[in-house]
C-alpha cells in the first residue's frame, strides 16, 4: 500500500539548517521512496513498510549523529499525492 509521510524537523541546535539539510539528503539514499522537500516540511512517499522502516532508521540516525530534535510527522496510509 502506497503511503505518504509529511515530516518537519526541529533540531535543538543553533546550526539547525545544516542538520535539516543533512536529514533530507540522507532520506534520498532510500531509492524506493520519493522525497520532496518543501519550505516547512518534507513529503516522503512509498510502500508503507519501507516508509516506516525509513522513518525508524532516520530518527535513530538523527539522534545518534546530532542529538535531540523534535519531529512532527503526519502519516497518511493509502494516500499518494497527485
From TrEMBL:
Domain Thiamine-binding protein: 5-75
Source species, domain of life: Bacteria
TM region(s), chain numbering: none
InterPro entries in alphabetical order: MTH1187/YkoF-like, Thiamine_BP
Record-given protein name: Thiamine-binding protein domain-containing protein
Pfam families assigned: Thiamine_BP
